[in-house]
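#struct-pred
JK: can someone run the complex with adenosine-5'-diphosphate? inputs below
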Amino acid sequence: MANVSLNQIRKTYPNGFEAVHGIDLEVKDGEFMVFVGPSGCAKSTILRMIAGLEKISSGDLHIGETLVNKLAPKERGIAMVFQNYALYPHMKVYDNMALGLKMAHIPKSEIEERVKHAARLLEMEDLLDRYPKQLSGGQAQRVAVGRCIVKRPGVFLFDEPLSNLDAKLRASMRVRITELHRELRKSGQPSTAIYVTHDQVEAMTMGERICVLKDGTIQQVDVPTTLYERPVNAFVAGFIGSPEMNIRPATVVANDGKISLLLGESTLIDVPAFYAEKLSGHVGREVKFGIRPESIGTPQSAALRNDEDTVLSQVTGTIRLLEHMGNEVYVYFDLEGHSFTARLMADDARMLDESMRFKPFTFSFIMNKAHVFDGETGMNLTL
Ligand code: ADP
Ligand code: MG
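RT: done, structure tokens with the ligand placed:
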């Protein structure tokens, strides 16, 4: 069993800075967990505490049944892939992969078997005789992953392993690492993985579950679709998704008992009945209104999504810019002094062209997909 449990884990650096504020997290045996958050939110600090490279200030860390707070890195059954690969330049790939096993006094024949097996999994059998300087960035990264696989660790730790690669290679390595994790699980080799990234696309595509961090605290831990559809607060809502959710100030108002949102001076937005109930305690207060770009359409395109829950609210904005992506068009428009982004299918945007810039245009907000966040705490009021 290689589940990883963090119980009230805290980190205060020697200079007195508290980087991690007492976090609880259970990474399940065999799970692929992603830590995501902006630079400086303590992703690396937490990973390094799990690895044993950084002292835990307080709290309990278990790997399987064992309390590992005081165990050295090599006694924890983990292997770590770093951003800069950390290969030995004077050793061939084979020896780079074999080194850890040699030091653990594993018999030569078994070392050979494990290295060849890992090389096969990573499709790098033809690289074993090369030196690191003869490898491309992607190949070097594969060797770094291979070096971990041969150790048969209970837990793999990855700290932004793809951030030195170009976009195309990053996308293919992303798929390879995900597939590899699935293959190891199928082959019966335990392979709990914790993968750190600041890139929400990597997080969404790779994570079986994602832990969103901010300033050394956990914001939300869940499967990707739930994070996307039911973010607990404005931070998670804004961090996950691209282009990002439009989050703008609004006021909760009541007219003849009917609750709506007032954007700016005069734009009233109808809300679904079930939101209205949740917002009734907030009348007169400033909140944050959140809507994803794909939940804004033209009245025609939005009406096509007419499942029975669909609640549309029409607003008139001024188109500022159209960005053609091929299959989609991003429409940047101003509404009551705030900038919004809509993401339309190319077919639905056919009537939009450059001549419409700086002219009023009616958009439909798909309100059952919208969110309202508390103006002060940022908590999602519509869950
Ligand atoms: P991330 O990996 O999410 O970018 P880090 O874990 O590297 O974040 O850092 C978290 C916070 O802890 C940052 O504010 C960083 O400046 C601080 N920090 C990191 N290492 C040290 C250290 N050795 N001493 C003091 N503060 C540190
Ligand atoms: Mg880091």
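RT: quick notes.
The radius of gyration is 25 Å.
The first strand starts at residue 4 and ends at 12.
JK: thanks, will look after standup
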